[in-house]
Amino acid sequence: MSDLNFEKIKQSIQDRKELHQSFLEYIKTYPSLVELESKAFQSGALNRKIKELMALSISIVTKCEPCMESHLYKAMKACATDEEIYETIDVAVEMGGGPAGAYARFVLKALEYFKKDKQ
Fold it and tell me: What is the pTM of this model?
């Protein structure tokens, strides 16, 4: 994988962390979104891992690379296996067609990034 791809992922992570407080302070709808996310991802009938994999699939179909990176990371933290991630990509491609397949490549790059980052 090229350094450029890793840099893009690293920048996405950094931007999210650095801008979170500014968003809380200046973007009126953001605190409600944070609260909604917290409630939506609580374990219930579906556990956190399943919900993160669902969000990853939706992120691929909606072509949101920062979302893909974030939900992939959270799914991995929730112990999602590579096979579960690959099947999540399969569902996204089925729902989103060729464009989802193209954007799913970003997920594979991010998966490689997070595995390398763990070492």
Answer: 0.91
H-helix or E-strand containing 48? helix 48-61
CA 37, distance to chain mean position in Å, is 13
Superfamily of domain 3-118 in CATH is AhpD-like (1.20.1290.10)
State percent of the chain over pLDDT 70: 97
Name, in order, each residue with C-beta under 8 angstroms of 112's C-beta and a sequence gap of 6 or more: 1
Q: What angle do CA 50, 116, 101 make, to 5 degrees?
A: 55
pLDDT in tens, 60-112: 999 999 999 999 999 999 999 999 999 999 999 999 999 999 999 999 999 99
- Per-domain residue ranges of the chain: 3-118
Between the CA of residue 51 and those of 41, 57, 59, 111, what are the distances in Å? 6, 10, 12, 18
